[in-house]
Specification:
Blueprint lengths: L3 E6 L4 H17 L9 E4 L3 E6 L2 H17 L7 E3 L3 E3 L2 E8 L5 H14 L5 E5 L2 E6 L2 H13 L7 E3 L3
Antiparallel strand pairs: 1-8, 1-9, 2-3, 3-6, 4-6, 5-6, 7-8
Helix pairs in contact: 1-2
């Protein structure tokens, strides 16, 4: 019998990110407490820029964006937010979108699987993914449960279960 396997990845659904940003932008335009504060959300390819005229307002705009992320089923671990900083007369927050599993995190997950996972499970790093294989599908299910419980710095998805 051939080995069964799955891939551990960290991908972002770009359409959902765009939808969450559009919903947050609409809410900022409609809410009374954001009238006249110059609150804006700008989405580029790999980061989101939030602007407002005070530090409290830009943090409130970030809270609105985060709530829209959660409602759209996006993990907050995909957002890497910086502290608010002054830029002229406005305050800004840069939020980078994290995609892919970096080498350090992949090594931690690999070690976790080796130490605490079922003994028949093998894992290897392939670029920004982690391939996990075993002869037993039950062991793979147990490994997925183990990885879901682990506190990784990135949002994990499990794809290509064969």
């Amino acid at each position: 019998m051939a080995d069964s396997s799955f891939d551990v990845v960290s991908k972002i659904d770009r359409m959902e990110v765009e939808n969450a940003c559009n919903q947050a932008r609409k809410e900022l335009e409609q809410r009374y407490d954001f009238k006249g504060v110059g609150a804006a959300i700008d989405l580029s390819s790999d980061h989101i820029l939030l602007k407002a005229n005070s530090e409290e307002r830009v943090l409130a705009a970030l809270d609105v964006l985060q709530s829209k992320f959660v409602k759209r089923g996006l993990s907050l671990k995909t957002l890497d937010t910086e502290d608010p900083y002054a830029s002229g007369k406005e305050y800004r927050i840069n939020a980078k979108l994290k995609e892919g599993i970096d080498q350090v995190t992949a090594k931690k997950l690999n070690k976790l699987i080796r130490d605490e996972g079922p003994k028949s499970v093998k894992s290897q790093i392939q670029g920004d993914e982690l391939r996990v294989s075993s002869k037993s599908r039950d062991d793979l299910q147990a490994t997925i449960a183990l990885l879901k419980e682990a506190d990784a710095e990135v949002a994990l998805q499990f794809v290509n279960f064969r």
